[in-house]
Amino acid sequence: MNWLTNLIRPRIRSLVEPKDVPDNLWQKCAGCEGMLFHRDLLENMNVCYHCGHHLRISVKDRLEMMFDNGAYDKIDLPDVPHDPLKFKDRRKYADRIKDSRAKTGLKDAITIAKGTMGGIPVVIAAFNFSFMGGSMGAAVGEAILKAAEEAVKSRAALITVPASGGARMQEGMLSLVQMPRSIIAVEMVKDAGLPYVVLLTDPTTGGVSASFAMVGDIHIAEPGSMIGFAGRRVIEETVRETLPDDFQTAEYLLEHGIVDMVVKRQELKDTITNVLSMLMKKPQPEKKAKNGNGNGKKSGKGGNPKTNGKAPPASGEKASIDMEKDVQAARALGQVKAAQKAARRISKPPQKSAAKKASNS
What we know:
By secondary structure, this protein is an alpha/beta fold. The chain has 14 helices and 9 strands.
């Protein structure tokens, strides 16, 4: 009977008994509802490899994706009263904060980090939607101010990555005050002659979209991101009209001139680096200098003597992608310069016309 109990029974049990399978091995795509294997999804930067839908990504992964070699220094968030109004609805606000910190391992809904992108110094303030919907309270407002101060101090570009449902209602008026404070922070950076770039992700709504998220020098959005102020249903009930299906998407805002570029996540770092190199008048990274500057010619005087030191036009899919990125960046830079020129022309007093009136009189 030993062979039955020692050999046959364990084999039957191994076939019949359920095995423990981790819950996070597969993830469902919200776009095509396809099943995505976690390892393949991670390698594709949380972008569906079936339909291209951009899933949300953690702050840690995003910062590693954007900074050179994934290396950066985190900046501590300023200390603020975590429950200034002693707010309570179904639960105490203090308990919600405590649970969110335990769940995410973050102090609040924003993370500040500094490092380089393509050798260009940058300060990035990125939101984490998992922390109370990325809502903006006093801590977030203080963090944006500190990020702006650090950018001015380090002569670095400021990049914000909003992913938020808006102001944090548990802090009442104190959360709404952060809207003008964030605008002041952005103006500090602009007055110092430094670029301010906004990377709009899903979702960017409410008081965040009504403040610092819409006053950037360049607005770049991820495909399919929901960007707006009020909800779709609220707007439809207000205007009493049926809105388009793609209303408040990144592509819709691109068509209507609110967003400058819609860029895939895999191409974000190169695109932002190109934009910053133009705005800060920095040389292109070595990788770009070797492959060309987007028009099929090498930068510099070396190369084939038969072509007067210029390389022949590049070919292939990579060359066309690089060309498209540079064209988009140049177009966005042109829009910024045109807007600045128009602003100066409007603010300049009409001296010539005044002199002419004086001579006529």
